[in-house]
Amino acid sequence: MLPNIKTMKKYKPFEILPHKSPMILVDDYQYADATSIEASLLIQKDAPFCVDGKIPSYICLEYMAQTIAMWRGILGKKNDEQPKIGYLVSCRKFELFQDYFSVGEQLKIFGSLKCMIDQMASFDCKIEINNHIVATSAINVYQPEV
C-alpha cells in the first residue's frame, strides 16, 4: 500500500526532481496523494523549447513525465530519499489536440497511477488548459534501484 501524501509538506520542484535548471519544466504541484498528482505550468517566453512565443505540443510528453517524477519525489521525501533518476519507458495513446502552447497559457497536468509493480509503474496522464483537455497519454516509467 502506498502512503498517503496529501498532508505532507509542500516541496519546490528542485527539491523533488532529479533535474537541474533549465530543465525543470513544471512550475509546481497543487495536489498529490497516494495515486495521483496535479501539477501546473505557465508558458513563459524564456521557457526551454519556446520559439516565437510557442512551444510545440509534443513537448508535453516531458511535462507529463516530470509530473510523474514529482509524484515519486514526494513519496521519496517521506522516506528521507533524495530525488532519483527515472526513465520514461513508453507511452501509449498519446493524443495531442492542439499544435502548440502559447506564452501566457496555464497548463494543468494530471497523473493518475494505474499500476505499480516493483520499480515499474503505469500512469494515465492528461493536460488541460481552461478545463479543456489538450493532451492525453498512458505512460510507463521505470526507476532503477540505486
Structure report:
- This protein has 146 residues and is of the alpha+beta class.
- It has one domain: Thiol Ester Dehydrase, Chain A.
- Helices cover 16% and strands 42% of the residues.
- The chain has helices at 13-16, 60-78, and strands at residues 28-32, 36-42, 54-56, 87-96, 100-102, 106-117, 120-129, 132-142.
- The strands form two sheets. It has a six-stranded antiparallel beta sheet, with helices on one face.
- Strand 1 and strand 2 form a beta hairpin.
- The protein is globular and about 40 Å long.
How are the secondary structure elements laid out?
Blueprint: H1 13-16, E1 28-32, E2 36-42, E3 54-56, H2 60-78, E4 87-96, E5 100-102, E6 106-117, E7 120-129, E8 132-142
Antiparallel strand pairs: 1-2, 2-6, 3-5, 4-8, 6-7, 7-8
Task: Give the gist of this structure.
The chain is α+β, with helices and mostly antiparallel strands and 146 residues long. It has helices at 13-16, 60-78, and strands at residues 28-32, 36-42, 54-56, 87-96, 100-102, 106-117, 120-129, 132-142.
Structural class: alpha+beta
Give the ordered list of helices and strands: HEEEHEEEEE
Helix share bin: 10-25%
| β-sheet strand percentage | 35-45%
CATH level 1 name: Alpha Beta
Low confidence ranges: none
Task: Output the CATH homologous superfamily.
Answer: Hotdog Thioesterase
Cα-based radius of gyration, to the nearest Å: 15 Å
CATH architecture: Roll
CATH topology: Thiol Ester Dehydrase, Chain A
- Please give the order of strands in the largest beta sheet: 1-2-6-7-8-4
Number of domains: 1
Mean pLDDT: 92
Main sheet: strands, sense, barrel: 6 strands, antiparallel
| N- and C-termini, Cα separation | 22 Å
- In DSSP terms (H or I, runs of 4 or more residues), the helix count works out at 2
Estimate the global geometry from the Cα principal axes.
globular
Q: How many strand units? A: 8
